[in-house]
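FIELD: query
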Amino acid sequence: MARALDLARRGKGATAPNPCVGAVLVRDGQVVAEGWHQRCGEAHAEVNCLADAASKSVDTSSCTLYVTLEPCNHHGKTPPCTLAVLAAGIKKVVVGCADPNPRVEGGGATFLRSKGVDVTVGVLERECLDMIADFRVWQFTPRTYNILKMAATLDGRIASRTGHAAWVSGPESRAAVHELRARVDAVIVGGATLRQDNPQLTVRLEGGYGGKQPLAVVVTSLLPEPSAPLALLARRPDQTIFWTDALNSASVRAEALRDLGVRVWELPASGESLDLAAGFAKLRSEAGCFTTLCEGGGRLALSLVKQGVMDEFLYFLAPKVIGDAMAVPVFSGDCVESMEQAVRLRLAGVRPSGQDLLLTYMPKDDPHGPA
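FIELD: result
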């Protein structure tokens, strides 16, 4: 199942709005064929795995199929995977997690069992649920799946007190961020980041990148002048969106930005902040976005978490210490008097990233699946 998860991960950024799924065929304790869902509308993981087996002349009837998500039992863009499993003569299937799709009529596991197949569900279930966390957001909400990325020193600072942040993390982590940008539909920053860093928010990979650039979204109550020397306005106004309040959205400055080709969207208020869920829903319905990468700063990061629209937190921890209480923290904007008020997250992964450490966190209380 761990190998199937590794395969599933290869589909990230290409399968939306379908889930990422991996599958392997095992005989005598050895993986003899494997496959994953590579692109929306194309063959599912099980079918690709069986095709790999056929190319190797593997007798599938003597194999056990391991798949990260319950095989589908309905006609969509492709035929049911359950029928492919039965046609292959497979007698045992091990499933990571059940299909959460509420519109699916009849579970794949139930159907396979009715045909005499031995089906086990729940192997590495938490890891398999995390793999389809984006799919579950798309199924149960109207918004995008949102990844928060922050890079910080060991004492939790993303910049010096002057705002200097180049570079907190190492080259391997910065390359990983550009790989992330390559598989998302939009990159989100706050207004302070726009003014201080003048970012491009584009994918820049060694060897070049020929794919589609993500949209650039800026959350701010202070719209820039159309003549401001900003990379987003000069180089990609038609790919830039500002989220702001009603007053700013109706301003002369907003209209001047629209004349450049920039989109300025009014978002409703949520307390003292903007309703970010409304913005993410509009990104999905009007701009065709499914996944976003939010790159801060600290106030925007906290708003994402407090409003419950942060679905995955990638925390690059660099082996550096600033030691300045006035340096910029990872999260900011709240007033907390006790630890009981702290937001709690769940650690979902740890791995080195060059000299840095990449920690992956998920919401502790998952509203879209079992704990």
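FIELD: remark
DSSP finds 13 helices and 18 strands in the chain.
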